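Exercise 7. Given the encoded structure of a 290-residue chain, write a plausible sequence.
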């Protein structure tokens, strides 16, 4: 598998890293491989993460003949560090358009599939609602553990989110590195997720109601959730998020022992684990091939 990093600049010398991954024998030249293929996939991670969490599913899909494009959020992975404040909407409204303009308008790729983890799915929804011209360029989508307003579905989770919000505000960051994640996140970013879930809505910083407009997105979506993920993206939250797209072609896939899987998947193992490679990745490949 070949990896190439493209720097997409957005001002003041800052850039986001877009990784192109493909097989040696994809097609005649690397310059024309993407435009000659109808198997291009856009992937991205969520909070506390970078491209590594996408690498398992990427390696699998590249072997299936896909050309994969992984975007790393600003201040994550190989993208440029930034000092200014940013949140989910910053990523959705600046970085997603930057990447899709590059893929579709500069490289002349007519259509892509999407594979997204956690907050990556939230950002796709906000991006498409604000940039409806790209709706027809997305064929099918798979979201791993994506939800924005259903985590506080019981008293325990509500209390956890309230406490996390208070501590995060006091400290200024969520110290995710202490538990093995590659990136901390600021309170400015995380308070959107806290508020969405505590208030049960999906409201933008300018007051726009994303939840009310999600049904405008028509790409068929496979929402994959883990029965062992009872806090970040619980089954109830993923189902409520998926239901808002109001598309009968959409599908909810619950991955746990009760539904015939090898384990009760948690938030990370759902997309990045040896068991996921064996029993979830093939289902994603089947979904994208329909």
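Solution.
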């Amino acid at each position: 598998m070949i990896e190439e990093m493209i720097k997409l600049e957005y001002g003041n010398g800052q850039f986001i890293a877009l990784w192109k991954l493909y097989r040696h024998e994809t097609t005649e030249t690397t310059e024309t491989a993407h435009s000659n293929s109808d198997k291009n996939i856009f992937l991205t991670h969520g909070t506390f993460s970078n491209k590594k969490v996408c690498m398992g599913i990427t390696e699998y899909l590249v072997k299936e003949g896909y050309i994969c494009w992984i975007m790393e959020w600003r201040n994550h992975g190989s993208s440029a560090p930034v000092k200014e404040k940013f949140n989910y909407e910053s990523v959705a409204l600046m970085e997603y358009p930057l990447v899709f303009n590059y893929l579709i308008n500069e490289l002349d790729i007519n259509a892509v599939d999407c594979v997204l983890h956690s907050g990556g799915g939230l950002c796709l929804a906000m991006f498409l609602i604000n940039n409806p011209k790209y709706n027809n360029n997305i064929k099918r989508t798979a979201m791993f553990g994506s939800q924005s307003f259903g985590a506080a579905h019981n008293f325990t989770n509500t209390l956890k989110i309230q406490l996390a919000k208070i501590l995060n505000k006091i400290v200024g960051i969520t110290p995710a590195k202490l538990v093995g994640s590659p990136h901390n996140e600021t309170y400015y970013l995380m308070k959107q997720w806290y508020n969405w879930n505590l208030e049960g809505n999906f409201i933008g910083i300018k007051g726009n109601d994303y939840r009310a407009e999600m049904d405008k997105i028509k790409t068929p979506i496979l929402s994959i959730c883990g029965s062992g993920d009872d806090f970040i993206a619980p089954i109830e939250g993923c189902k409520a998020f998926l239901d808002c797209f109001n598309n009968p072609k959409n599908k909810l896939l619950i991955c746990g022992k009760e539904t015939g899987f090898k384990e009760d998947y948690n938030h990370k193992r759902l997309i990045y684990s040896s068991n996921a490679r064996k029993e979830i990745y093939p289902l994603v490949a089947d979904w994208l091939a329909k």
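Remark. The longest helix spans residues 88-106. Students should compare their own answers with the one above.
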